[in-house]
Amino acid sequence: MHQYLMNLLDSGTKKILIIFIKTLGIYTILSVFFYCYEGLVDQQGKYYSPFLDQYSIIKLILNLLIYPLVWILKILGYTISVHSPSVWVGASGVTILTPCLGIQIMIGYVSLILGFPAAKKLLFLIAGLVLIHLLNIGRMLSILLTIEKHPSVIDISHDIFTYLSYAAILVLYYVWVKNYSDIEVTG
Question: Is 183 helix (H, G, I), strand (E, B) or coil?
Fold first, then answer.
């Protein structure tokens, strides 16, 4: 049956199918790994590991998000209060939870890059991860400044800045595929 299906597909379709399956497999493995890791560093978790929590990548990414955010806000003249994982500008604030750190989009981006046959993977992995993080700092900054002036628009500002971040990553991925891939990209 498998061979019959493969014979029905032309070589271009086979390449795309293989890339899709490979990317989906990488995404699944990384997501499951992160889900398990997250459980190990959760102090209320059944399988909590103090050792892993001490060197938590989640806390590292949170700090790499909060410190530049606070620095920028102070330069802009705002009064900031930090009670990690919450950041307050005046009377308005946000709590930065694990889903807000951009780790899932990082996993998705890494999966796209590793799953696609092209050159300069390491360069685009690093560039993409740095870009995702910088966009996330900008996203949090925009959300904080927006809700400080207009608290009623927190949901829409959160969604808009999230979608803009996704769009930027897709553009970076497209540039990488178009310039470094063996597969022809039209458009």
Answer: coil
Strands of 54-122, DSSP E: 80-83, 86-89, 92-95
Q: Where are the domains of the chain?
A: 2-180
Q: Is 124 helix (H, G, I), strand (E, B) or coil?
A: helix
More confident residue, 22 or 172: 22
Quickly count: other Cβ atoms within 10 Å of residue 128's Cβ. 21
Of residues 61, 70, 63, the one with CA closest to residue 141: 70
68: its two tokens: 């530049």
* Three-state SS letters, 144-180: HHHHHHCHHHHHHHHHHHHHHHHHHHHHHHHHHHHHH
Identify the three-state secondary structure at position 185: coil
CA-to-CA dists, residue 35 to 10, 32, 40, 41, angstroms: 37, 5, 9, 10
Residues with Cβ within 8 Å of residue 174, at least 6 apart in sequence: 185
Indicate if the pLDDT at residue 1 is higher than 80. no
d(CA 19, CA 143): 36
Q: Which residue has the tokens 């009377």?
A: 91
pLDDT tens digits along 48-84: 999 998 999 999 999 999 999 999 999 999 989 998 8
Strand partners, 181: 118
Regarding pTM above 0.90, the answer is: no
